[in-house]
Specification:
Two copies of one chain form a homodimer. With about 400 residues, chain A is an alpha+beta fold. Chain A has helices at about 15-35, 50-55, 80-90, 135-150, 160-170, 180-185, 190-205, 210-220, 225-240, 285, 300-310, 330-340, 355-365, 375-380, 400-405, and strands at about 40, 45, 65, 75, 100-105, 120-130, 155-160, 245, 260-265, 275-280, 295-300, 320-325, 345-350, 370-375, 385, 395. Chain A folds into two domains: about 15-310, Bira Bifunctional Protein, Domain 2 (BirA Bifunctional Protein, domain 2), CATH 3.30.930; about 320-405, Anticodon-binding domain (Rossmann fold). In chain A, strands 1-5-6-11-10-9-7-8 form an eight-stranded mixed beta sheet, with helices on both faces. The longest helix of chain A is centred in the N-terminal third of the chain and has 20 residues, at about 15-35. Chains A and B meet through helix 1, strand 1, strand 2, strand 3 and helix 3 of A and helix 1, strand 1, strand 2, strand 3 and helix 3 of B.
Chain lengths: ~400, ~400
Amino acid sequence: MEKFQPPRGTRDLLPAEMAAREALFSRLRGVFRSYGYGEVWTPAFEDFDLLARKSGPDIEQELYVFTDKAGRKLGLRFDPTVPICRIVASSPNLPKPMRFCYLTNMWRYDRPQKGRWREFWQAGVELLGSPRPEADAEVLAVAADCMRAAGLKRFAFRVNSRTAVEALAKEAGIPEGKKADALRALDKLAKVGKAGVEKELQEKGIPRAKAEAFLGLVGQEGGRTDPGIARITELLKEMGITNVRHDPSVVRGIDYYTGFVFETMVEGHEDLGSVASGGRYDTLVGLYGGGEVPATGFGMGIDRVMEILGTGKAPVPHLLVAPVREELAGNALSLAGELRARGVACEAEVMGRSLRKQLEYANSRGIPHLLFVGEKELKAGAYTLRDMQTGKEQQLSLEAVAKQLRG
Amino acid sequence: MEKFQPPRGTRDLLPAEMAAREALFSRLRGVFRSYGYGEVWTPAFEDFDLLARKSGPDIEQELYVFTDKAGRKLGLRFDPTVPICRIVASSPNLPKPMRFCYLTNMWRYDRPQKGRWREFWQAGVELLGSPRPEADAEVLAVAADCMRAAGLKRFAFRVNSRTAVEALAKEAGIPEGKKADALRALDKLAKVGKAGVEKELQEKGIPRAKAEAFLGLVGQEGGRTDPGIARITELLKEMGITNVRHDPSVVRGIDYYTGFVFETMVEGHEDLGSVASGGRYDTLVGLYGGGEVPATGFGMGIDRVMEILGTGKAPVPHLLVAPVREELAGNALSLAGELRARGVACEAEVMGRSLRKQLEYANSRGIPHLLFVGEKELKAGAYTLRDMQTGKEQQLSLEAVAKQLRG
């Protein structure tokens, strides 16, 4: 019979991976809470019109789109920010600023490759209502705390301003109508190099001289100071965040950014691309009917972070509670319950196996201790606790077992 | 401009609701871990063939089904058990028993009604590899611990055996070919009453006398003892779980159960139906090419449980760090960072507002304290902490602020 697999570009997350992810999520939730962000969850699918509004109908090529049985055209969420903007647009009376965070999966119909999945996860924040550099600085500070909470130490932020790049394009003589093409080409600089960008610029009808001038201006790193970026960098310095570099080539692909943008590179893992990215998107809420709400935010790519962190072993309980005879299975279940009530994670035997088979199983699962349950032990209220690694055995009351294993 | 809403039958979960859910999830994870269950996550969508295999292609009416750009027919997950069986079927060498748990959303194209959403959540366990009553007893014990972990005290389990109901159907003279129809009709007993079930039985071509005989036998509660149920009930009693009643009318709608089934009713909330249900499904893994793997499990309906529990208020941070002049915004950001490092959750002002406006904001958000940041305070290293409720103010060092608010 054929075996089923997860659909192409997706995978199952098994206990070792999930335990590591849950530990990460719990630390990230702690960071978000410490800044006053409130978690939200939005449905997996949205009206396709909502999803397409910012990018145009071509986005359909990159999404999972379907029609429900009532004829509604829906699409799987591919971004956490759009649904949050929908919430804000329909709640005009919430006090500002609004601080929302999310830890969620989303879907994109993309060519699967390293660190890129068709079902992927992001965690991040959206700070809505403030047009000021303090808001951008806070968002980057949250990202910095998230990186540290993930255990990543050697990372750096690359910041830029979309308005500054647009000014450089103008200075290079790139016509207004080609500006979007120029930014989209520049976004690929890290991937395709200077020659690749120049080639794309020319393919888009931008004369070679202007393309060179544009790349020349962009290349003058630090040579120009964008006042917005300068103020954000200054605020970050006050907050003790100094691993921030102005990089005029950082544009971020997504087309809703309006000003400050940033990305986060981890030393030795540059091939994964940015693991935490974001910026300012002052026009997005307005697009969904919510008036003008300036906003800034970032998202961390959980799958990329997990790629760097790796996973340990799947967690196992402290103990297997092992009846010495099949008839004592009920006693084993009941003792296991008493141990759990005392804080000991344990499995009870439910297979009716011989003691030898139970020892083999505990070994294969890597369960570190075994507790024998026999008539004699039940009468005495003292059980044999076996250390599976050393083979050492002790006679202990349940209380003493709990004390030893919890400690 | 039109406002967008979540698609029909779905909703956004906002911070108050999410905080309550996360607290519940964290307690449920604790229960699962204490029994040795390892968490898994499976993709939101699966091959439609996988989803349809157990129920036949008619299930398509109840699912979100779509075709991806490569022509694969996919469907959104509508059940947590099928994907876990897929994992088990493709991993024949894992040591047995296997204990998997999940906390996940899923989707069903259903008529929206109270406690029933098109995107809904379940948390539960699957215990695979054991055909024995100890396994069923363990699963119900996990459910009992989950109910208690959710803070629910007044609940009762209704248990039954599918094989026992089938025997009653046979005894009543219902032909083998009509057995599935009879069980499906019986499943609606709580909803449509005895007359409704009789009507459906007759519509399915079962003569009135046989229908009455069947319902008569089913109604003899406790009058017959199914040996499987009796043993499970005995094991549960040994574990201290006594709120278990044998109810021959419990069938559970889903057609994969093969033996023991149970549901959980909360006193005063019977209208929500069962909040935690499960049973034995010995043939499901085999359906996906995994050989014979006896299995049992249960799932808790998180949306129904939340309906009972209700949600509190959205969490707010301890404190707003409020610069007295706009120019001190950077100092406020930086002090907020120092307070967070000392365990204080706080917002910093990012709107450039006057102190009066900041006080108004703290009030509207329900933030209980405000810390004033002025030049004098910065020089002295002592800040004014205001209790927003009493209006009381104290001069304190950051350390003292942290000590007071954390405590």
